[in-house]
Design brief:
By secondary structure, the chain is of the alpha+beta class. The protein is globular, with a radius of gyration of 18 Å.
Length: about 220
């Protein structure tokens, strides 16, 4: 988990940040030796300025998605299963050309697979966003991002990102402690499940009765 150990060394051992660090050390093998390193440091870890949780909307009837800035994009395909909603759309940027994702409410996850152009290869297979995904009315879904992300390197390891953003948002009062704890619990559950299934997203989700399909 690139960058996670230095981050844990900057968080305090008390309060919400300390709770985050304790859970991370328990969830990720090899971090316990760093448990005492944060005792004298009470500053929040560095990162982006605090921001509110990003909210997106998905209109299955009109085949659109609306991002956190209100920008409406055309969606090529939605597909609904008992465990969640699939979305696929073109991404008109140079380094990638297609995006597919599943919203999985029961696991508080969005699983994203990005089709990139050959010259812009990345070394991870899936990107997992922790958040709240709900059907607010028939064929209308809402996604609230909870800052934490997991990049999965199939068969090798995972990387947990966004801890600094979550801590900063909580300190700024943009998310309450209950919401932040929930985000963290969902992230650690995903880390545990992936570790138990050789860091394979499909194998882990199959233990929950979920089978993802892609274009």
């Amino acid at each position: 988990m690139r960058g996670l150990i230095p981050l844990l060394n900057t968080v305090p051992t008390t309060g919400f940040a300390g709770t985050i660090a304790r859970h991370l050390r328990a969830a990720v093998p090899g971090l316990n030796q760093n448990a005492d390193a944060a005792a004298s440091n009470t500053a929040l870890p560095p990162g982006h300025p605090p921001h509110r949780p990003r909210v997106e909307f998905f209109n299955l009837a009109e085949l659109t998605s609306t991002d956190c800035k209100g920008f409406v994009r055309q969606v090529e395909r939605y597909h609904h299963e008992p465990w969640g909603v699939y979305m696929a759309r073109i991404v008109p940027v140079p380094h990638r050309h297609y995006l597919e994702c599943w919203l999985l409410p029961a696991l508080s996850l969005r699983v994203t697979l990005t089709r990139r152009n050959p010259a812009h290869h990345v070394d991870h297979d899936f990107h997992l966003d922790i958040g709240e995904f709900t059907e607010i009315e028939p064929k209308h879904w809402k996604a609230v991002d909870h800052y934490l992300d997991i990049e999965v390197h199939r068969g090798h390891n995972v990387e947990l990102l966004g801890v600094d953003e979550l801590l900063a948002a909580h300190a700024a009062g943009l998310v309450d402690t209950t919401q932040a704890h929930r985000a963290f619990e969902c992230a650690t559950a995903a880390l545990d499940g992936l570790a138990a299934n050789d860091h394979c997203v499909e194998d882990w989700l199959a233990t929950h009765g979920i089978t993802l399909t892609w274009m």
